[in-house]
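We read letters as residues; the integers encode the fold. Take this protein.
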Amino acid sequence: MEHTSGPALPAAYFSSATSSFSDFLRSQAPELLPERRLSPGPAGLDVPHGTTIVGLTFAGGVLIAGDRRATSGNLIASRDMTKVHVTDEYSAVGIAGSAGLAIEMVRLYAVELAHYEKLEGVSLSLDGKTNKLAAMVKANLEMAMAGLAVVPLFVGYDLDAEDAKHAGRIVSYDATGGRYEENGGYSSIGSGSLFAKSSLKKLHDPDADVEGAVRVAVEALYDAADDDTATGGPDTVRRIYPNVVTITAEHGAVALPAEQLAAVAEAVVADRTERRRARD
């Protein structure tokens, strides 16, 4: 039986001129890039937005956590959105802003990191990862000017750090692609970030173990939800709890199971309830 092959792929598919998947798309299929999937419309377009994200270091690692609510104007667009994503073995990204664009951006970013590693045989350095994400945020500037901003929070474990105990790093961004290293050991983005950051300022302990750090992250998101309507608190009726990813040298990036997060969130709610009763 005669074998018939399909159409030949363009020569660019076999070129090693760039190890950037985004650059490859930009030259071969620019319409697939997140910033090209929509045409900028009038400012104030009412699309779902995601908030709030927190990141903090602990002894030997770093974690990132996000609430689950997405809002569209004064309405709840989603109660169980996943805003925290593992992007490679030692990094994760939390997203705030226009939900659809943010999810596409973080998925493309994960492919970008995997593509680089496959072509080069090594992973990008942590600084390289953060700079790559900054370039992707900057590429979305036209959409941001039209009101469709995407603002990520990056956390990663630096395998090249001299002090393994403090190898966890946190990097925040602005809508223009500005990149800011957070040296205080914690950060927060999104509409509830002011309240979450105030909570982290009081509770964060860089020498805490991972269980203690998870508890602090959930406490910070609870405080944000208490004062910010766009941030969703633990929902014990629907059993919707924050998403948390921890990153350590030993285990890499790990998304914590729902059962563990439910136990932590319910303990926080119970403690707050008990304190309220004691005051009354």
